[in-house]
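Before anything else, study the sequence and fold tokens given here and see whether the fold suits the sequence. Record follows:
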Amino acid sequence: MDPVTDQERLQRFIDDIATDGIIGVIDAGHWLLHRTLQLHDGIRLCGRGMNRTIIEARTEDWQHDDYTLMGLGVNNHLNENGIFLSDFNLIGADKSATRNGAALQLNGINDFSLERIKVVDGSDAGIRIAGYGVGRFTNDITSNFWNSTKRGKIQGCIAVRGSLGIELEGGVEGVLVEGNHIHDSALHGIRLPSAYDCILLANHVTGARNGIWIDRHRGIHVLHNTATRVERGCVYGGFNRHRDGEISQGLWIIGNRFQASRSTITDAYHGSPDKFTHIVKIKDNILEGGNIRLLWSRRVDIQGNDGDGGNAIITSHQVSGRVGNNAMRLLNRSPLIRDLGNNFNLSDT
């Protein structure tokens, strides 16, 4: 196996299928890279299966200035013809999670689908979808191409190690993240620095600092996910209302199972009086280990959650809304919280 020869063959193959407008299938086998593979707008690229088509960047071979194995960039216009990638395995060169490039990154694209892709040892994220791509890295809401990536799905993928598993940023909108498995991330399993109207559905995270981490957002639904062996299950903040000129709202955290050593659901870790979420539904979750801990959220509705007999719901500072009918105690109630009653420990029944 020779990384220079494999690189040339794979890049030529990708360039050819993009020019011809056909579906390209990478043969089964173990391919080596020494630089980033450049994708093209409109490409349809498949492997023979995530355990059969393996594309690896060995540490001793890598010659690029970051650790991105496969990427779609943006020049002076967006990628508007869609992209489909499936059924292969990417193994990164960075074994220390130095946060220097995602294994697979797509920038500024409308209509994409990623299915059954395995990523191992992504330096920064395993899979990153970004709603920008022009000029320097930025998560500034006023930057060019903010909110430029819309409509897509990441389904049935696996991310192993690295700093993050899956990341949506730059104002990505309308993305479904469903049925993915993320193992042993150094920081977060799924990270949303900035996203609109996205659904996180039936994903499994095991071994991370935070299972799901959400910053600036609107209309995010966190539904039926599992996070185990984590410090915190779901952490969220919000837009900075003064700097960004926008307020986060419409967060649903429903039907999940979080097993955490610290908080199971919290805005205390990443919120502030100027970074909060308006309208939050926390319902029907199974929560083990840590508390629900809220300081800043407005108009919360916390009902139907099951604890482990020792954890509780704790609200303080500026939290407003209602809490009731949980198999968890309600402690340190904020003055703006309405207690609907029927909050009890399992040990009380």
User: Anything to note?
Assistant: The two ends are 64 Å apart (CA to CA).
